[in-house]
Design a protein that fits this description.
The structure is a homodimer of 363-residue chains. The first copy, chain A, is an alpha+beta fold. Chain A is 38% helix and 14% strand. Chain A folds into two domains: 306 residues, Malate/L-lactate/L-sulpholactate dehydrogenase, NADPH binding domain (Ribosomal Protein S8, Chain: A, domain 1); 37 residues, Wheat Germ Agglutinin (Isolectin 2), domain 1 (2-Layer Sandwich). In chain A, helix 1 crosses helix 2 and helix 2 crosses helix 4. The N and C termini of chain A lie close together (11 Å).
């Protein structure tokens, strides 16, 4: 890590974030959910999806802009299907909805082997990987996808951004096998727009085929990039489309106008999809050499990372290392600039100020 | 199409393929399933997964090599979960298993909103896209993945091929909206090994980052390629791992030794995963402007393919065009070389010979 980090006690962080949400009119339960997700992201070293990002999003697209409705109640839409629930979130805070949806999916999976919750009229849940990671730590196979708040990605062979960065997140129960859950979690664009802006500021090039310029041609000049490209050409495009199509079946809005001014009568919100599978509902019980299920998972992973592949990382390994660092430091790690921004959050909601000298440097 | 095609009546094709399977000891039900899948692939213009490929695979890895067991019975493993089934296929023909698994998933989805079937000890189902496409045409959301018969793909940042080309296939019910089901269906490698061999024969280059040479370095020289790379770097690697991990939970074999000689006691077969969602189990019913579900899907797709994106294809569109061509020609389209190979199949199972002059050229 090139940046210098300071250790903020987790309670201290969570209390400020909860207070910031309460101050914006969210219920205690919502506020605690918002703090829990931000805290989990920072604990795992996810610097792009911390409390600062969440509160910024909430201010400019969420409760500060009508995109999110503090205190909204989730409406359970009757479908007549026992293992599937459909919710209308009425733009309730995404983090609170996502935690509750995953809990519901787990309950359904306990009973039916698998369960799903589809959510219409939702607002940003911050970090999909966090929800599936928690479920995976409890032993489940978990999945979520969502549509993004704004279209920034150009369909394969197109010129106009009409797709969100539409992420997918899978969590696998591998903790007993390798010490942490494998979490496959990424956007379907090569890079995020925030990364393009960062590279433009630093005058650094984009990777090839990550963005197009205003003429619709691929560019590696971050300053000229106006829209993103899906990863892996038509394959990433297909994965991005998948989120839009599932959302369209749920009740989703038209992606190209989402988050932008548009004619009356169209929706403006995103959709979530959650699914959990119980591990016992997958096992045929016929593992080689009499292994148990987790032993078999361990043997398969060791086989994949065998000779020649020692340098390979597993998805979720960086997050697990982040958590180990937080654990060792006994708190969340933030830079000076981040702590100053937290101080601004504190001022906004009349909480005691954050001061760099209150936090020990991380080793 | 640069090749010249000849029209083979579908029944004529299906009868020969059924006979070829019967001749190898498969049951009538299995043989009809094998012919049905091959026929569907050729009907949709999938030339890489036709009957010739299926029968070749069966000869060298399947019933001709002990990898597939004609007449095997599917064992339903009790799990206690109502919406999930686990099967041990005992190496029964993959196509017969896959059709039955999708039918079971649809029945479970009709009742619970979604359903899944996990299959241990399986043998190659040929073309995953075909199964999800059929379910999608019936109005369902369908998904399948499987582990490949042999490891040919190097994990991201690795040097040794320990992953299969592990494909994913999603089918979406979009026929009422756009005239055909969207089918997202691809391997997690940039290209298939068959494509590498074809390019090597023709002395043509590989795309960048599709394969490595014997030193473990990326190469575009098809003749020097010894292993494949996942598409999209760590993202495609994650998707390939997902199949191995789900298989590992089901009962899967160690990927690096799969399909190769190895020590006693380890398994050698692949796993399948199938899932179907009922469209009514997703709908929140709150579509903008009073649209119905399919109208909303249509509006979302039209929005994505709006101005600037007219040249974009939808996944499944090429297959739909292939089916339209077959429909118009009133039969399956094969090249001279393919028809000669079918004649070899006919000779093998003592069926009447295929002769190019029996088949009219396609227009």
């Amino acid at each position: 890590m090139s940046d210098r980090y300071y250790v903020v006690p987790r309670d201290f962080h969570d209390n400020l974030v909860t207070k910031a949400y309460l101050d914006r009119g969210f219920t205690p339960e919502e506020s605690v959910s918002g703090a829990r997700m931000a805290s989990s992201a920072s604990w795992h070293g996810i610097r792009t999806h911390n409390a600062l990002k969440a509160l910024h999003l909430d201010e400019f697209l969420g409760s500060g802009a009508g995109g999110c409705q503090p205190g909204a109640s989730i409406e359970v839409v009757p479908t007549g299907f026992e293992a599937a629930q459909v919710w209308n979130a009425h733009r309730k805070m995404g983090q609170a909805v996502a935690y509750e949806a995953m809990d519901t999916c787990k309950r359904l999976a306990d009973r039916f082997g698998l369960g799903m919750v589809s959510v219409d009229d939702a607002f940003h849940y911050l970090w999909g990987g966090g929800y599936v990671m928690e479920a995976a730590k409890e032993g489940y196979i978990a999945y979520t996808n969502c549509t993004s708040a704004m279209a920034e990605v150009v369909p394969f062979m197109g010129r106009n951004p009409t797709l969100g960065t539409n992420p997918h997140s899978w969590g696998l129960p591998t903790t007993d096998a390798i010490g942490f859950p494998i979490v496959i979690d990424w956007a379907t664009s090569v890079v995020a727009m925030g990364r393009v802006q960062q590279l433009a500021r630093e005058n650094l090039p984009l990777p090839p085929n990550a963005a197009i310029d205003s003429e619709g041609n691929p560019t590696t000049d971050a300053a000229k990039a106006v829209a993103l490209l899906p990863f892996g050409g038509h394959k990433g495009y297909g994965l991005s489309l998948l989120n839009e199509l599932m959302a369209a079946l749920i009740g989703g809005s038209l992606p190209a106008i989402r988050g932008r001014p548009h004619e009356e009568g169209e929706k403006n919100s995103t959709c979530f999809f959650f699914q959990v599978i119980h591990p016992d509902a997958l096992s045929a019980g016929a593992f080689a050499r009499g292994r148990g299920q987790q032993d078999n998972v361990k043997a398969v992973i060791e086989n994949i990372l065998g000779p020649g592949n020692e340098k390979c990382l597993l998805p979720g390994q960086i997050e697990a290392a982040g958590a180990a660092r937080s654990e060792k430091s006994n708190g969340l790690l933030f830079t000076k600039a981040e702590i100053e921004e937290f101080n601004g959050i504190a001022a906004q909601c009349s909480a005691p100020p954050w001061n760099l000298k209150d936090f020990p440097p991380a080793h």
